[in-house]
Amino acid sequence: MDFSSKLLENAVNEVSRLPGIGKRTALRLVLHLLKQPVEHTKYLSEALLHLRNDVKTCEKCHNISDTVLCDICQNPRRNPALVCVVEDIRDVMAIESTSQFKGLYHVLGGKISPIEGIGPQNLKIDSLVHKIGEGEIKELIFALSSTMEGDTTNFYIFKQIEKFNIITSTIARGISVGDELEYADEVTLGRSIVNRIPFEQSIRS
Ligand SMILES: [Zn+2]
What we know:
Dna Topoisomerase Vi A Subunit, Chain: A, domain 2; 2 domains; five-stranded mixed β-sheet; two-stranded antiparallel sheet; elongated; zinc-finger; DNA damage
């Protein structure tokens, strides 16, 4: 792309570093901003900077939060004995939108993936094992996507916590293997949490 302006080129280059945004899309977005009042660009940059500087990770569940403990962990009406293990905040948002789950979450921050160089030590697994060791958690629900990485991660965690003798279950999937949790519709996802199955049964089938 030949740019008549270095300023334009820099802005396009920065925007195109975002996932799924090619140079052409970046140019369209930047030109759109140029046509809008300058405040729009100001609010956008300020919101992003604020997010980057001030966002926290909940100390208990590792979900993205504005406070040291997130709203879900702070809510006295949630059941701390029931914990749902998910990959990231998108899964928390998907499950919350079903209104079928009243427990707490544990956000791993990813899945075990040797190809991408992600091992158990890169995920929030130790803190989960530690939390279970403290005795408050009675049931753990695995809600990772049913991909090979998801299954590997579930099994790894299961092996780590077997000794604690808590109930482990996995969400019943009405959706085909490989579908990401985030894309499941609310009704299907809600039902799959209510109809969860014992984890050991899921690895035998
Ligand atoms: Zn939390």
